[in-house]
Amino acid sequence: MKRRFAALLVPPLLVLAGCTAAAEPTGSATSPDRAPRPSPFADCATLTAPPAPATATPTGSAGAAAPTGSAGAAAPTGSAGAGDGSGTAGSPAPADGGGSLLPELTLSCFTGGSPVALRDIHGPAVINVWASWCPPCRQELPAFQRLSVRAAGQLQVIGVNSRDSRDGAQAIGEDFGIRFPVLFDQGEALQRELRRTAVPLTLLVDAQGRIRHTDNSGALDDARLADLVRRHLGLAVPA
User: Is 209 helix (H, G, I), strand (E, B) or coil?
Assistant: First the structure.
């Protein structure tokens, strides 16, 4: 009777703010007798591609150039007003410490292709470490998908699937419509480098590849994500 009562207590204990590796599933990789389904996730080639050059202002058009000699016709770059805390795309990253560079790790892409060196990723970026067996991860993944749409052109949203089966991750991507690129980290290499054991885990990385903030407070929603991006990356993203 005592054994049966103890067994009934196990499932509720797994629904915590963070999930540790002890909650890892027993499932294996895709069965060899089954053809792999197309991945729902985006290709990872864009993660290390140079950013697209800014579109030049057309010359010769009427009113395209500001009148010369006028006071304050164009706000100079690096002026005192640039860091006014408004969180616009041109604002500098908050001065909350230099932050450490992303670890020197190379992870495989869920969709295949060339592995991705984390230090080659072009920031700013929001990196979410997740697993299909983690309830808070499943709860917050749709918010990261919405962030990837709203912040397109401002930052990259990247998933790192940790200590998981490909079938489990694939199913979550399909069910929740996750379309941003996902790296595969079965051995928890990134978490070991960061000395973090629980998921979900979110990293906010600036344009220089430095980690400005690490969040493991539990499932994040749209408003909390927008606030983290504004405070730690200086970018205004609608919640």
Answer: coil
Quick one: which of 130, 82, 51, 87 has its CA closest to 228? Answer: 87
Contact 207, 89 (CB under 8 A): no
Q: How are beta strands 210-215 and 100-101 bridged, if at all?
A: antiparallel
Q: How many residues can be counted in the chain?
A: 239
**pTM above threshold 0.85:** no
Q: Give tens-digit pLDDT for 98-146.
A: 689 999 999 999 999 999 999 999 999 999 999 999 999 999 999 999 9
d(Cα 170, Cα 127) in Å, to the nearest integer?
18
Edge-first strand listing for the sheet containing 156-162: 100-101, 210-215, 201-205, 125-130, 156-162, 182-185, 106-109, 116-117
pLDDT single digits (tens) 202-226: 999 999 999 999 999 999 999 999 9
What phi-psi label fits residue 86: left (phi over 0), alpha (psi between -120 and 50 degrees) or beta? alpha
Q: Before 124, cis peptide (omega within 30)?
A: yes
Beta bridge partners, 201, equal 129
Strand ranges in 63-181 using DSSP code E only, listed in sequence order:
100-101, 106-109, 116-117, 125-130, 156-162
User: Is the Cβ–Cβ distance between 157 and 144 less than 8 Å?
Assistant: yes
- Residues β-bridged to residue 107: 116
